[in-house]
Amino acid sequence: MPKSVKSPAPEPGRLTVRKTYKLYIGGKFPRSESGRTFVVDGDNVSLASRKDARDAVLAARAAQPKWAAATAYNRGQVLYRIAEMLEARRAEFTALGVSDSELSAAVDRWVWYAGWSDKIAQVAGGANPVAGPFFNISAPEPTGVVAVVAPGSLLGLVSVIAPAIVTGNTVVVLAAGPQIAISLAEVLATSDVPGGVVNLLTGRYAETAPWLAAHDDVNALDLTGVEHEELAAELERAAAGSLKRVIRPQAAIDFTADPGLRPMTALLETKTVWHPKGY
Amino acid sequence: MTVTASAGLSDLRSFLHGLPGVDKVGVEARAAALATRSIKTSSKAKAIDLAIRMVDLTTLEGADTPGKVRALCAKARRPDPADASCPPVAAICVYPAMVKVAAEALAGSGVHLASVATAFPSGQAPLEVKLADTRDAVAAGADEIDMVISRGAFLAGDYRHVFDEIVAVKEACGGAHLKVILETGELGTYDNIRRASWLAMLAGADFIKTSTGKVAVNATLPITLVMLEAVRDFRERHGRIIGVKPAGGIKTTKDAIKYLVLINETVGDEWLDPDRFRFGASSLLNDLLMQRTKLTTGHYAGPDYFTLD
Amino acid sequence: MFEYAPAPESRSVVDIAGSYGLFIDGEFDGGKDGNVLKTVNPATEEVLAEISVAGPEDIDRAVAAARRAFGTWSALPGAERAKYLFRIARIIQERSRELAVLESLDNGKPIRESRDVDLPLVAAHFFYYAGWADKLAYAGFGPDPKPLGVAGQVIPWNFPLLMLAWKIAPALATGNTVVLKPAETTPLSALFFADVCRQAELPPGVVNIVTGAGDTGAYLVEHPDVSKVAFTGSTEVGREIARSVAGTGKRLTLELGGKAANIVFDDAPIDQAVEGIVNGIFFNQGHVCCAGSRLLVQESIAEELLTSLKRRMATLRVGDPLDKNTDIGAINSAAQLARIKELSDIGAAEGAERWSPECPLPDRGFWFAPTIFTGVTQAHRIAREEIFGPVLSVLTFRTPDEAVAKANNTPYGLSAGIWTEKGSRILAVADKLRAGVVWANTFNKFDPASPFGGYKESGYGREGGRHGLEAYLA
Lengths: 279, 309, 474
Description:
The complex is a heterotrimer. Chain A is α/β, with parallel strands linked by helices. Chain A has a single domain (about 20-275), classed as 3-Layer(aba) Sandwich (Aldehyde Dehydrogenase, Chain A, domain 1). Chain A has helices at about 50-70, 70-90, 90-95, 100-115, 120-125, 155-165, 180-190, 205-215, 230-240, 260-265, and strands spanning about 35-40, 45, 125, 135-140, 145-150, 170-175, 200, 220, 245, 270-275. In chain A, a hairpin with a 2-residue loop joins strand 1 (about 35-40) and strand 2 (about 45). In chain A, helix 2 packs antiparallel against helix 4 (about 100-115). The longest helix of chain A is centred in the N-terminal third of the chain and has 20 residues, at about 50-70. Chain B is α/β, with parallel strands linked by helices. Chain B has one domain (about 20-295): Aldolase class I (TIM Barrel). Chain B has helices at about 10-15, 25-35, 40-55, 65-75, 100-105, 125-140, 150-155, 160-175, 190-205, 220-240, 255-265, 285-295; strands at about 55-60, 90-95, 110-115, 145-150, 175-180, 205-210, 245, 280. An eight-stranded parallel sheet of chain B has the order 7-6-5-4-3-2-1-8. In chain B, helix 2 crosses helix 10 (about 220-240), helix 6 packs parallel to helix 8 (about 160-175) and helix 9 (about 190-205) crosses helix 10 (about 220-240). Chain C is of the alpha/beta class. Chain C has two domains: about 10-255 and about 455-470, 3-Layer(aba) Sandwich (Aldehyde Dehydrogenase, Chain A, domain 1); about 260-440, Aldehyde Dehydrogenase, Chain A, domain 2 (3-Layer(aba) Sandwich), CATH 3.40.309.10. In chain C, about 35% of the residues lie in helices and about 15% in strands. Chain C contains 13 helices and 18 strands. The interface of A and C includes residues 72, 80, 111 and 114 of A. Chain A: InterPro entries: Ald_DH/histidinol_DH, Ald_DH_N, Aldehyde_DH_dom. Chain A: Keywords: Oxidoreductase.
């Protein structure tokens, strides 16, 4: 793709200042510890290494308890803020080739999930009428740290990140389409999302994903963005080592459709509490 | 009930476990609500001067030297050299090795001299060592002793051990006032904080103090609230007024005023007195001085205008 | 004593006009017959503004506007309705200090409460129901639930803007349009809300605000083109509305009075229980339908608890609602003050022992000192009738069964409180209480995600939570 897409009509006589695309780990934008970059559409983009993946998991793990302990209302507010900031930065994504309708859908997707934060427990949990003098209630809880091998489009990216974090998980995202992904990271970084809740790595799936799939401190693995069947199977096998929850869509996903509850419930644990009743 | 020194372990245990529980959410909500009080103008000026008079100006570092301690004593006597109306602090708080230096520097000032003792901060030493530590500090001139309880023994349920230690240290203090540090950040629950408060008071503490300042969680408003409720109830039952000293983490005037509000609305003005309430703090003093200056000059002050020590 | 200097919240953040019209079809206009009423600041008796009184013709216009708007509003995709509600929520957040001051001026409640309780809950309520607008298929009321039409909503004066939020947010999220009548003594925040709707560019007619007194409310409730009636207020008026709606096929929800028991067992966390009792009855001057107005305390700790309670009550700060340190503000109206005085006098005449802390009250305005009655029995009128003021009746009990029996011995059934450190007791007692909301080791807690509403004569239907959608869905 020609560079001109990103640098529309510079003023004559003035050279535009380009953006450097770095990783997003723990709320900061570091370069890869490996010092490597790869070229995408003429930009040098950080090429994440296994150690970057390790650092990202550490950051996600460190952020997870506090994010999960935030009130559902608070998490909803943060997600809504992301929608506001994404809407405000439309031009940036348009310049990266994202269509108006996809942008709108991506903004609305954040709004949709923002609303789920304080409702998913009311739909996915509830009182259980056990036979005995017991109070018994089931409530969903986040599974923990989720590694996401993400699809390349903006809407695809939002559609895998939002359902994971809205319930209190934190994520390490391997992203294709690095410019869009890092621009989204910049939206997140300015949207009250605590550092470490979303960590974004750009690089090669085949190189980095296996390290995440086998990482013992990762609780779930979302393979939505893996197109290569063999790689997906290999990653699933690696995930089995620590019995990670794995999301592996069996058919191509239409990201414009109502996502339903599955993207959230697949990354939730159900906890049931019993308590006797009696004077 | 009265627990005498001869009371058995089971009496002490059943008494402490019979105290009303503390609901965490409720006590924290109450403390947070009181923290929204808005203290302005004339009340703020009074509160600042009172808070200065309640400061136990503290240095408890391995790197403390006679020079450092002398400088701190000078600051304690006259916190704001530019303003003679600024009151002195309540006390200096130092390690036993520094008591002699501090005693000389404070002579005739009316500023009390507190020393941590009893194998501060861990308390992990034989009783004899703790008592010697205490006697030495008193002999060197300390008129207040800040002891630590054996948290290990408390958490293991060996209340008798903790009780006896406090009794022994109190005796070793002679005429010096005894502050008992509960190290609330290590006790885990508000219920334990209430129990430890009562244990210390029953054993003869003159003050109960939250923290050493050396662990992750130091003084907080709800912890201090629970301790204030304990001294209030103890006074009602036994007629003796015990002081309270939150220590560690209180750095700003805003923080300090929240504590004064807490006292005012839970135990009342009898505790609004340096003999009954202290702040264990070091950096707090300069913020109090800055806010004090802001009130008198009408503009904001900067840290360069106040002495470092 | 550590005296707090006055710390008044600035009144300049709110700009009140001299007079207000009705908000119909997106525009403010005067009522057709030109009648007005005055709304006053109950803390000073100062007139704040003149308000139009909506007559039958005005109600016709408002309902017609809502009916016209219903077609397009209900046909909007839920996600689009959601975004309007999110906008409203955000604007309320951004204007919350202004609205809090306004609410305190018009209602008399302390700024600490309007700022820290009312306004945050108002915004949160709109956020919560905004999120439901595009998720109705997941709410458990069928795959494609439909709105009802025009909702006629009548709200009380105790939490003016919060009650508005409870009514309007679920109605709009589900695709209904509304005509809402605020209470005659507290109309201002609803009129400011009309301005919020305009700022949010909400389509005209989706929200209409009609002001007036009881007659205006009756016209609205009885209007034939209103499909759904929602009322919060007294049980007496609720009964009238239920009669007038009977046979019309209109859907009806009622959130009415209460006489909640706050039950304290001998193993309660005492200091927190005292806070809960104080919060239960003195929050919002006791103008709370779910107030814990009957304290049921286990006899074995009654004396100790009352000592603590009195000591705590002595620290309550009564006075200027705009002072940030005020705990108890003004009684909302002269009429309400008279009612509180009357029932309190009856309590004393019937032999209960009355106690209030030393408590200087301002000369102007409507004030009532926090009061407790001890030695109250089930036979006393102050144990049976809703006082709706800062007056607590104290009764004792011996066993859990007796506590439950006394708690349930009332035609009301809105809320109850339980204080004990024993979990199994909480759950067992909660099971037996005939009340719609049971708070354990806390009191007067509200959240948009949590349903609220009563048993028996405290009304029917639930507001808040997923359950709150049901009242607005076919």
